[in-house]
Amino acid sequence: MPVTDITKDLDNRMLTITADFAAPVDRVWELYADPRQLEKVWGPPSHPATFDAHELTVGSTTKYYMTGPEGEKYYGTWQLTDVDAPRSFAFEDRFADADYAPAEGMPVSYNTYAFEPTESGTRAVFTTTYDTAEALQQVLDMGVEEGATSAINQIDDFLAA
């Protein structure tokens, strides 16, 4: 399984997931840059993703939704704030409604995805910060740790296919 470490730090309002992939940095970057590939691994297997807009350029807005087992849809957006291809990108991730407007009362996360070469492939460090410890706890209670882990753990198989 690619996920090798998960650190929850409520004092600093941060969730960090580390994963090691058996593919070079350029190939992992390609997965995150291509919405059709990213759809295959963004959500957990029970909640596949669909990207309506996605481009890894500063200032762009990604629009996506995940579809649950009963057909329910969960919408979100990314606002890209930094891109250093193929090493890292940063974005604000928001829950959204079906029109991609920010969902009232839902936490916003600030994310940095960083990729470094290793002898066997790529180490990815996914760092997510929230405005408050309560916001981090809210998404932890919603299952973000389990969902992110199961999504990330699909990546090696996808890249090998």
From TrEMBL:
Tell me which domain of life the UniProt entry assigns to the organism this sequence originates from: Bacteria
The family database entries (Gene3D superfamilies) matched by this protein are listed as: 3.30.530.20
**What lineage is on file?**
Bacteria, Bacillati, Actinomycetota, Actinomycetes, Micrococcales
* Residue ranges of domain Activator of Hsp90 ATPase homologue 1/2-like C-terminal in the record: 23-159
Organism in which the protein naturally occurs: Ornithinimicrobium tianjinense
Family under the similarity heading: Belongs to the AHA1 family.
Q: Which Pfam families match?
A: AHSA1
* InterPro entries found in the cross-reference section: ASHA1/2-like_C, START-like_dom_sf
Output this protein's name.
Answer: Activator of HSP90 ATPase
